[in-house]
Amino acid sequence: MNITECYSALGGDYESVLRRLTSERLVKKFAVKFLDDKSYTLLETAIREDNAEEAFRAAHTIKGVCSNLSFDKLLHSAETITEALRDGDMDKAKELFPIVSENYQLTVDAIKALDD
């Protein structure tokens, strides 16, 4: 899968990120680096442990990274859970987490399918 196909698969906006990063090589480099980010694992742990403060930080980080990389589908679910956590609503965050999880996995799978 090439980078434009990857962005299509993960529900992202390739043209937007390409305008920001200016080269396909950089887009691919930073998309692949996303796989090393630990924010999702931190969010998952914080949700399980009812730690709203840590969950908020992790969700906010995911939101920021997704915004910068134009991973729009994951961005939208991360924004939603971030706002629930900003309000301290762990019950709502726990309801929203499966959507974030699904979008995260979709994103990871698409990136892993990129051609070398």
Shape: elongated
- How far is the first residue's CA from the last residue's CA? 9 Å
Task: Bin the helical content.
Answer: over 70%
Strand-residue proportion: under 5%
Order of helices and strands: HHHHHHH
Overall pLDDT:
97
Task: List key phrases describing it.
single chain, 116 residues, mainly alpha, 7 helices, 79% helix
Task: Write the topology of this structure.
Blueprint (H helix, E strand, L loop, with lengths): L2 H8 L3 H8 L2 H10 L5 H10 L3 H18 L2 H15 L3 H23 L4
Task: Please provide a written account of the structure.
- There is one protein chain.
- The chain contains 7 helices and no strands.
- It has helices spanning 3-10, 14-21, 24-33, 39-48, 52-69, 72-86, 90-112.
Please sum up the structure shown:
The protein is an all-alpha fold and 116 residues long.
